[in-house]
Amino acid sequence: EKKRERKMSRPHIVAIPYPAQGHVIPLMEFSQSLANHGIKVSFVNTEYNHKRIVKALAGESLIDLVSLPDGLEPWEDKSELEQISEALKWIMPGKLEELIEKINGGDGENVTCVMADHHIFWALEVAEKMNIKAVAFWPAAAASLALLLSVPKYIDEGIVDNDGTVLKSQAIQLAPNMPAIKTADFVWACIGNETTQKIMFQFMVRSIKAVQVADWILCNSAYDLEPAAFTFAPEILPIGPLLASSRLENSAGNFWQQDSTCLQWLDQQLPSSVIYVAFGSFTIFNQTQFLELALALELSERPFLWVVRPDITDTTSDPYPEGYQERVASRGRMVSWAPQQKVLAHPSIACFLSHCGWNSTLEGLSNGLPFLCWPYFADQFTNESYICDVWKVGLKFEKNETGIVLKEEIKNKVDQLLGDEIYTARARKLKEVAITNVEEGGQSNKTLQKFIEWMKS
């Protein structure tokens, strides 16, 4: 009897992110927040990512970290999105069921809910099959999800083919004040080669169907950042921005160990003087482009902090121009991975040169910083449109005829952005908007409270 009471004593969520850095961080953030509200969370990573996170986390966690095999041999290339997506589809559903049964057979609380990244559609199907609550988690902008949910409409209108091939070149805007996106920049259309694109498209079509079994679709955004998108797709509910800073804690779920020495370096710089340059976990530059960026930062004559992942260029040799590191040593700092939320909150930062991943976008906004946008793939073009066209807190770069952004263009845009107070002023207004949504009485906070009540019912 006692054991039965304990097993039903509190809700128990199994949370499953898509195994990419930008997806793991917000779901882990949300899981920490639920754990603070007395809900037990078992956070499931692939074995490969589990090891990286445990190593980078190095400390206490309120949530249980669990790993499942991802169906790839250890020597296969884990960063190939299509391999991961294919493998996840095949291997995980049975394993997830086994995991839930194993948890329910043990001494702890029974699993009452599966909360899965929208891309892990089969996990929602497993929840339905096992008759437990199902929650879809969308880690990006509501506008990006609304664009995906509209795929059947694009097929009907002959904008894309049944396999995702783009048939018409045009800009799509679902409603006024929503970002406009070129059909060539559709999420699946700017990833890898044709085969990858078709796999990703089928994957997305499947996930749209599966998400319909979810009891809730929760989104890491705020109503007041995207009122048009949330009005257009009212089934999407805002719970963001999910940032560690709002819990006054460190961000968890990083795949790389952070170099915190750059914070001391920032302490020595003037207020609002430093350009922070970071491109997330996937962006890869060819050598020519890398050199242009390096030289542009030197030309800018401003202090800069640049995150250069070991695998950021497609070359194995030293990617910097000859003598570069010595020449910029007095005002430039290069690190391999930074504690980004702490960097962006630092008073020395002036602007954020970013790939516009959604986490980076929210982190920059929440610190009232203007942007220079350099999107690479996936939803980053939608986010760029928000930053430059809708919120008007940043600038885009123009590429030359060979597809390269030249150093002069970079330097000019830096000067333009930092030479006009209006960008920073608008960004500071948005900071207020973002913060009030997660505070008591804010829309995201209300959604969270309702969700917790539902979980406990």
TrEMBL record:
<dbReference type="GO" id="GO:0080043">
    <property type="term" value="F:quercetin 3-O-glucosyltransferase activity"/>
</dbReference>
<dbReference type="Pfam" id="PF00201">
    <property type="entry name" value="UDPGT"/>
</dbReference>
<dbReference type="Pfam" id="PF26168">
    <property type="entry name" value="Glyco_transf_N"/>
</dbReference>
<dbReference type="GO" id="GO:0080044">
    <property type="term" value="F:quercetin 7-O-glucosyltransferase activity"/>
</dbReference>
<keyword id="KW-0808">Transferase</keyword>
<comment type="similarity">
    <text>Belongs to the UDP-glycosyltransferase family.</text>
</comment>
<feature type="domain" description="Glycosyltransferase N-terminal">
    <location>
        <begin position="13"/>
        <end position="52"/>
    </location>
</feature>
<dbReference type="InterPro" id="IPR002213">
    <property type="entry name" value="UDP_glucos_trans"/>
</dbReference>
<protein>
    <recommendedName>
        <fullName>Glycosyltransferase N-terminal domain-containing protein</fullName>
    </recommendedName>
</protein>
<dbReference type="InterPro" id="IPR058980">
    <property type="entry name" value="Glyco_transf_N"/>
</dbReference>
